Amino acid sequence: MILTDWRWKMAGLAVIQLLCFIQILQIWPIALASVKLISGWMGIALMSATLASSRETKISETHTSAKVFKLMLATFSWIVISASVEKLNFWLPIPYTNLFIGLIFFFSGIFYFSQEREINGIAIGLLILLSGFDLIYSSLEGSALVTGIYGLIIILVSIISSYLQGGLSEGGFN
Amino acid sequence: MSAPVLWIVLPILISIIFLIFRKNFLLICLIQIILCLLILISAISARFVVSESTSILIYQISPTMNILGRSLIFTSGLKTTVILFFSTLGIWSLSLYIFKVRSNIVPFGLTFIGLLIAALAVEPFLYSALIIEIAVIVSIPIVANAANPRIKGVSRYLIYFTIGMPFVLLAGWYLAGGEISPVNDEQLIQATLLLGLGFVFWLAVFPFQSWIPLLAEETEPIEGFFVLTILPMAIAMLLMKYLNGFAWLRGFVTVFQALRLFGLIMIIIGSIWFAFQKTLRKAISYLLLVSSGLVVLAISFNSSDGYIFSSYFMLLRLICFFLLSMILMVIEKKSENISIDSLKGLFLKSPIISLGFFIPLFSLIGMPWTFGFPVMQSLFSEFTIYFPRYMVLLILSQIIISITIIRWIFTSLKKEDDNIASSNLEMHETIYLIICVFGLIIIGIFPNIVYPHISEIVKDLQFLVK
Q1: φ/ψ (deg, to 5) at A56
Q2: Residue B344, SS3 per DSSP
Q3: B130 to A149: CB separation less than 8 angstroms, yes or no
Q4: CA B371 to chain centre
Q5: What is the distance of C-alpha B23 from the center of its chain?
Q6: Interface contact A90, partner B, CB < 8 A
Q7: CA gap B309, B291 in Å, rounded
Q8: Residue B208: helix, strand or coil by DSSP?
Q9: Does A137 contact B170 at a Cβ distance shorter than 8 Å?
Q10: Cross-chain Cβ contact B145/A174 below 8 Å
Q11: How far B194 CA sits from the closest chain A CA (Å)?
Q12: Rounded to whole angstroms, how far apart are CA atoms B356 and B291?
């Protein structure tokens, strides 16, 4: 949330996808878990390609106070999740670590896109949210079809983000 | 060939092929209209069981297709939904063709409709949440493009549906668990809460309704209202499928109380906001909210009549908002997103356009001699029997909407220069408008031509409609 350069944001998103992959790897076979990592990284590559080719790409400047506020917001959400995760774990019988990390990503995603106005920022937030939920849902149910559709959703979100930024305008839909 | 291939896979594949030829817009628009017509005929003629009819038009088709252990299953009710959705797409495409308006409804409309039908056909239906999310993403090129810098509504549309999806999926997982092993009250409340949250986001219940007026304002009426009209209908059908599928969900009284509350909130909020809007697009978008609220309210009765009324409201919604979006497209030819004041002089200069604008509005509030009257009258009588305490809220909302529409009529009767594009219509456009307007008047006078057929949509919900 405090990063300003889109390259760092994309790198951070790639790390989140990797972390989710490592967690899912502990409960799923590598072939199925890889689908999530590959689709996630494909989406990131697509968004990065659009941002890199965009003529108007600029590094947004953020005040230190805003950064502190965002960090405190994230910390507060982590405290709330830490306090409530045990109760939630009673509802959702999945590994504690997966639930904790999943919820952290889920709410971080919501906080992220709630502070963004540009479509690429919103897409990054949505991908973080989807990664968090994916970690929780994968622990509940392991299905090849769900994995496939979920991967498709992640790629489609990235495509839509690129489309709305004009990345597909050359020979695009309009 | 099976029904899912014919009515889901084939339209999606053809839509992808159309992308290659999208520069010949009028040609692919015409092909899309013909395709919708063929699907319509194929759905009317198809039978899932061996038919005794000797007609050459009747044929038998397999209703099932299996994919990775899951199935797409068609029932006779879903077949009626196919007829309804594809005829809507066909008539919307026909309007684009006649008025020569370029839109991404051609070809994305085929994929969008195909995916919505897939979401209703998939078994186990827990997966429908994922397919709805894909349909939402596919619909974004219809309502937005890179050339339009206003993406606030589109962003919220995407965000709310993406947030709603995890809740519906988790609720589905809970409910499926409940079918295998007994559940306690606490689990029931948790599942209901999750499902409620999911559908609150999807159905745009207050305070998550902001994307509807924003989307309507930012997009062209013919495109925006296409998505805004059809998508909530598919969501409402999905809600009924959930209620039909899980015994302990439909046996939980709180679910229907919550639905009643949601429906009433949508109707009240929608009607109040409708009265205070200054632009036509936003005002009509709030009517969409009222219309969704009426569908939810009808479902909340949890009676056979209630579910059948909900199907009537869906048809009413489709026909009225089609005509309204077309009229908005016509009167906005000169200036985009016109204000209510721009209606001045409309009736005197263009009576046909005025009729096309006001008759759907009167139908939506259920004025006598309009298409909406039988269904609104039935809803009122049902509501009076079961929930007389809330009746005043429903009447209040109808009064607010009626007064606002009457105010608009007076505005349109004022002698002013017509500053909208109504007089620039070509002959074939005028004839098309006259056919649509008089079609609505005729089905308003003889509503039994269409209403009995549309209730087929809910007839398959054997635990809800008895």
Answers
A1: -100, 15
A2: coil
A3: yes
A4: 16
A5: 29
A6: no
A7: 12
A8: coil
A9: yes
A10: yes
A11: 12
A12: 18
Summarize pLDDT for A40-65 with one digit per residue, the tens.
Answer: 999 999 999 888 887 665 556 667 88
CA distance A78 to chain B (A): 19
Contact at CB, A145 and B70, closer than 8 angstroms: yes
* B186-190, B384-388, B441-445: least confidently modelled range: B186-190
| Closest by CA position to B380, among listed B266, B205, B390 | B390
Of A119, A130, A150, the CB nearest to B151: A119
ipTM value for the complex: 0.90
B64 - beta bridge partners?
B73
Enumerate chain B positions whose Cβ falls within 8 A of a Cβ in A: 19, 22, 67-70, 104, 108, 127, 130-131, 133-134, 137-138, 140-141, 144-147, 151, 154-155, 158-159, 162-163, 166, 169-170, 173, 190
pTM: 0.92
Domain boundaries, chain A: 6-164
Domain ranges of chain B: 1-123, 124-459
At residue B150, the 3 state secondary structure works out as coil
Distance (Å, whole) CA B97 – CA B109: 14
Pull the structure tokens for residue B95. Answer: 């309007």
User: Are the beta carbons of B94 and B33 closer than 8 angstroms?
Assistant: yes
Structure tokens belonging to residue B51: 């038919």
